[in-house]
Here is the input.
Amino acid sequence: MKGKKRQALAAIETRREQLGNLSDSLWDHPEVGYHETFAAQTLAQALEQEGFQVQRGLAGIQTAFSGTFGSGGPVIGFLGEFDALPGLSQKADCTVQAPVQEGNPGHGCGHNLLGVGSLAAAIAVKQYLQENQIPGTVKFFGCPAEEGGSGKGFMARAGVFDGLDLAFSWHPGEVNSVSTESTMANYQISYQFQGVASHAAMSPELGRSALDALELMNVGVQFLREHVPLETRIHYAITDPGGSAPGIVQPHAEAIYLLRAVHLPQVRELYQRVNKIAQGAAMMTETSVVITFIKACSNVIINSELNRVMQQNLEEIPPADFDEGDLELARRVQGTLTPSKSYFETLYEEITDPEERAKLEQDIHAPIHRAVMPLAQERQGFVSSDVGDVSWNCPVAQINAATAPAGIAMHSWQMVSVGKSPMAKKGMLYAAKVMAGSAIDALEDPTIIQRAKEEHKFRTGGRPYESPIPPDVMPRIL
Here is the structure.
C-alpha cells in the first residue's frame, strides 16, 4: 500500500473511539424511516466538526442531508443509512430475546454501523485530499428510510446525486465480500377499500363489505402468480381488516402490496395487472378502492470495474482482528440461531478453484468470518435496495463486511444484540478503510473512473435515469 494512502486510512484508526461512540449513540436512539431526527443531526454535526459543508433537508426530506469537502472533480460519494426497524428493540450483548422497551424499534440491519462506516470513509478521503492538495470532492450522503421508504429514490428524483462520478457503500453482515448481486426493482402500493357498514345478522343485504373486496383481491393475486415471470415476487400485508366485530359488515379495509421484478418495466406491468384485480374486486362487491402509490426503487446496475477495485482493497487491507472476547460472544449468539446454511457457505460452495477453496477452509466453521471471499460471478438477487436509484446516476460499488456471528439473519433480534459489540465496530472500521482505499485508488488513477463510466454507459444502454416514483408522490411517513 502506498504511503499516502496508508496515511489517509490512518485517519480512521485515530478516530476509532470517536467513531465507535458515534455508532453506539445511533444504536441507543433507534428511529424508523423519515423519523431519524437524532441520527441525522448527530451525523451532520460530526461532519461539520470534520470541516465538511453540510446541507440539510435534501429533496424536501427533513432527515436527508449531505456533507461536502473539496472542490473540482472527480466527485466521489459515500452512501450512509441510519434508520432502524420497527418492533426490534433488544438489549445489547444479550443472548436471549429481551427488548429494551417492548414495541420500540431496533437496528436489526446494522444501519448504525453502516452510516458511521461510510462517514469514516469520507473523513479518510477528505484527509487524503487535504494532505496532498489535489483537486477532487468527497460527499457523504445521509440517506433516510432505506427500510421500506426508498429515501434514496426520492433523493435521486430530486437530482441529489447528479454530478457524482462514483459512489461507494457497504452493508454489515457475516462475510467480507464484494457485492456482485443485482437487486430487484419494486413498487409499494396501498389498496384501501370502502364499503357500507350494516348489521351482519339483521340487515346483511344493506352492507357492502370492504373486507370481502380485499379478500377477493388477495385471491385474484394468488391466481396471477402463475402468469408472471419466474423471478417476480409479490408480497402483501393486511394493515386494516376493517374492525374486530364479526357482527358488523366491515366498511373499510386496506392492504399494502410490495411488487418486485428484475426490471422496472416488468414491475410497471405487474402494477397495472394488480390494479385491475383490485378494481375488479371492488366491482364484485359494490365497494370502491383507492390506490395510493407509496414508493419505488430501481434495480442495481453492477459495475465490474469498481468491484475489482474494491476486491483489491478487501484483500490488501488487514481484516478485523477479532479477539477471544469477540469469538465467545459470537459462539453464544450462534447458540440461539436456527441451524441453516450460512451466506458464507453458499458462496463457498460456488467456488471451483481448489486454491481459493483451500484458503477459505479454515474459516468455514469460525464463529466470525475473517476471510475475504474471492470476487464472485454476477448474479440476480431477490432483495431490493434504493441504492439502485443511485446506480442509475453513476457507477456504484458495494461491499459486505463481517460485523456479526456467522449464520446470523438480518432483521433479527440477534443482529440488534451484537450491534454495539466490539466485533461489530471492528468490522465497521474495516469496511470504512476498504471504501476509502477504493476511492483513493480512483483519485490516483483517473483511468479507473473512465473505465467505470464507460461500463456504466454500456450497462444502462446510455439511457438517462428515470425515476420510478411519480412526481406527485411524496415520502410517506409510516
